Every structure is written in C-alpha cells, then in structure tokens.
Amino acid sequence: MTHQDAPLRAADTEAQLWDAVVIGAGPAGLSTALTLTRGRRRVLVIDHGVPRNRFTDHMHGVLGHEGLAPGELRRIGRAEVEAHEGVFEDAQVAAVDSVTDGDGTRVRIATTDGRTFRARAVVVATGLRDELPNLPGLRALWGRGVYACPFCDGYEHRDRPMAVLANGDHSDMKAHLLRQWSADLVLLVNGAFALGEAEARALTARGIRIERSGVDEVLAGDDNRVRGVRLANGTELALEAIFTNPAFVPLTDFLEGVEVRGTEHPDARVWVVGNAGDPRANVPVSIGQGATAGGDVAFALLMDEIAAATADSEPSVVESAVSAEAAA
Ligand SMILES: Cc1cc2nc3c(=O)[nH]c(=O)nc-3n(C[C@H](O)[C@H](O)[C@H](O)COP(=O)(O)OP(=O)(O)OC[C@H]3O[C@@H](n4cnc5c(N)ncnc54)[C@H](O)[C@@H]3O)c2cc1C
C-alpha cells in the first residue's frame, strides 16, 4: 500500500507522518483543515482552546452566520473536519522546525506537554493577542462594549452614545469612521494622541466631540457591559460602546528562524494564515485565507508526489526510444 492509499485516520498521532498539521482551530485553521480533509489528505489539527474572539457572545458580518456565537462556529467547523476524517489534539505548540531525512524534508512540531508530531506541511493559524491600552476597567469589558472593529460591532450600538479611546496615530480617523454609526460620538484623547488644530477642526465640523481630560476608569453596568467612563476631572460620561486600537501581537513566537512559504521562500513547508499573518483578517477573510492555503498545500504535496513517482519509475519503452534517437 502506498502512502496515498493508507487510511486517513491514525490512532497513534505521533507515529504518523501527517500530510499536514494545522496549528490552531479558529476559522482560519478549521477552513484549511476542511479543504485538506475533503481533498483526502491526512490532517492533524492541534489547538489549545484560546481563540481571539472568546470575549464576545456574538459574531457579526459573517455571511450566513450573522449573530452566531463564535464557539458555535468552531464547534460546527470541528465536527465538519472530523466528519471528513480529520484528527484533533488538544495541545499547545512550542516549537516547529524543518528536518531533512532520507525521506525528504519534513516539519517537526513539538508541544509543551512533550509530544512530537511530523508532517509534510504545516499551516500556522494561531491568531493574535490584542494588547489594549492600560486603563483600569478596560480589559474586563473587552468584547462587552469595548471593541476594535466598527464593522464587527458598530451596528449593534448605532445611534447610541459611543467613544473612541485614542491609542496612537490615526485615532481621529477611527472617530471619523465611527461617525457613520452614531452622531453621539466623542474622541477621548487621554494623552495618547497629538491632536493637531486641523484634525480638531475636521472632527468638530463633523459633529464629533473632543474630550481632552484624561480617562481614569472604564465603568461597568449591572449587566457587566460598558456604561461609561470616569474622567480625571471627576465627571462621568455615559457611553454604550468604546472603540480603540489595540496593538496586534501575532502568536507565532515558535516560528522564529523558520522559513515561511512566500515569495522569499517559495518552497518552504510552513504556511501562515488568518490573524497569525494578517491582523485585518476578520472571520470571513480568515476562512477564505484558510481555504486558499488548503488548496496551496494540497498542490505542493501533489508536486512532491509526482516528482517522487517519476524519480522512482523506469523510463517507458517509448521514452527510451525517443531519448536514444535524440542522443544519436
Ligand atoms: C472582541 C472581539 C470581537 C470580534 N468580533 C468579530 C466579529 O463580530 N466578526 C468578525 O468577523 N471578526 C470578529 N473578531 C475578529 C476574529 O476574532 C478574528 O478575525 C478571528 O478569530 C481570526 O481567526 P484565526 O483563525 O486567525 O484566529 P483565532 O480565532 O484566534 O484562532 C486561533 C486558534 O489557535 C490556537 N492557538 C494559538 N496558539 C497556539 C499554539 N501555540 N498551539 C496550539 N494552538 C494555538 C488558539 O487556541 C485558537 O483556537 C473579533 C475579535 C475580537 C477580539
């Protein structure tokens, strides 16, 4: 039996040479895994259960799934991958490295619990961490009235009192964007943004208020959602939503020194998809990137297989005759 014809599922996940290991079971990783398992590839998905949007109860802007709980999308996705013979391991990946043995180049994946897996290709779909401005009360309300993405969460708070909490350059542009969702909008400068005269004039001209007093605390209501902020001057502002720009930190430390597939390394065995490589990838974009990567991986594996089969095979009688003729 060739590698191609062996069963797709393996009980001993460490002994198996997987066609692909997908690291991360969010929208990007599950979509990669679904494409590859439907392509009848041997796929192991490794995930340790801390997706980026675990702080929110509902997903928005995901066609066909408007308002669905993020955990429900992951549950459905996992069931779909398992139905196509994909295998899951609950573990945290600590290291990835390429090894070349007599059998060609492989990727080795080590987990924090001391296990090692081997694959012909690895897709990293580990997402990112949002680093929020350091302000009391803010982190606890992340996803519960504090957000980054107006297109994800603006609509649910339309025409309600909202703020943009400045966090670096272009905070004024975030306020201009949010004006589409509410006329009751204030930019909390909070010493985090050098607001010039021209920017201030443009904001005011569009009806966006500017609050220059510092912010001491974000306040929660009884429902544990944002109810406002307390300013350094002692006043309280009633708000329903606060949008800010976190710093995006990709969860890819374990890739340091590893070649990633792209124009610089066109033959590398490691792909990166979703938020791990692109902080702008929302759920639908992550699903799309995952499906694209799944197709790319399948094609790369196929090219290896054609090369291996051709190298092993004797030239056919016709080929031998043609080459003999050419040599004469
Ligand atoms: C509060 C909030 C609300 C949002 N709302 C929306 C919305 O309404 N609509 C929308 O389209 N987008 C929304 N997003 C964005 C959405 O979360 C991302 O677009 C999406 O999660 C990206 O998918 P991903 O698969 O790249 O990463 P993730 O969904 O973060 O999945 C990554 C997976 O990798 C795993 N992982 C990480 N490191 C390791 C490791 N070392 N080993 C093993 N596993 C690992 C994690 O456990 C996780 O399951 C929101 C984000 C936030 C923070």
TrEMBL record:
The keyword Oxidoreductase applies. The keyword Flavoprotein applies. It catalyses: [thioredoxin]-dithiol + NADP(+) = [thioredoxin]-disulfide + NADPH + H(+). GO terms for molecular function: thioredoxin-disulfide reductase (NADPH) activity. Gene3D superfamilies: FAD/NAD(P)-binding domain. InterPro entries: FAD/NAD-bd_sf, FAD/NAD-binding_dom, Ferredoxin-NADP_redctase_2. Residues 19-255 form the FAD/NAD(P)-binding domain. Keywords: Flavoprotein, Oxidoreductase. It comes from the Bacteria. This is NAD(P)/FAD-dependent oxidoreductase. It comes from Pseudoclavibacter terrae.
